[in-house]
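Appendix B, example 12.
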Amino acid sequence: INAEYMGDKALKHKMPAYGYVANESRNGLHNLRGTVAMARTNNPDSATSQFFINTVDNGNLDWNGAQDNWGYTVFGKVVAGMDVVDAIGHLPTSGQGRFASDVPTPLVGISDVQVV
C-alpha cells in the first residue's frame, strides 16, 4: 500500500497500479546527494511508486557487496532545482495517516517531472 499526495491535502492509501519492482541496488549507482532512489519496505523487492531524493550522501543505503545486504535502488538524479529539494528538506515534519513521523508540514506535492 502506498500513500500519495491528494488535492484535498490528505495522505490516502493507494494500491500499486503495477507490480513490485525488483531491487536493482547492485547497478553501480550510489545514494549520493541529489540522487533519486526507490523507497521500499524491509522486503528488498517491495518498491512500487514511492521514491526519495537524497539530500546528503547516504552510503549506508548502498549495496555493500554482501549477499544478504540489499541497498536502495538509485535510478535518477536532480539536474536542476536542488534548492527546492533543500527547502522541502527543511520543512517541519509530523505524523499523519499511517506514518508515525517524517511527513512534511505542510504536505508537498510534485506537479511536474521531466525526463532529460
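Residues 40 and 47 are 4 Å apart (CA to CA). Residues 1-8 have pLDDT under 50 and may be disordered.
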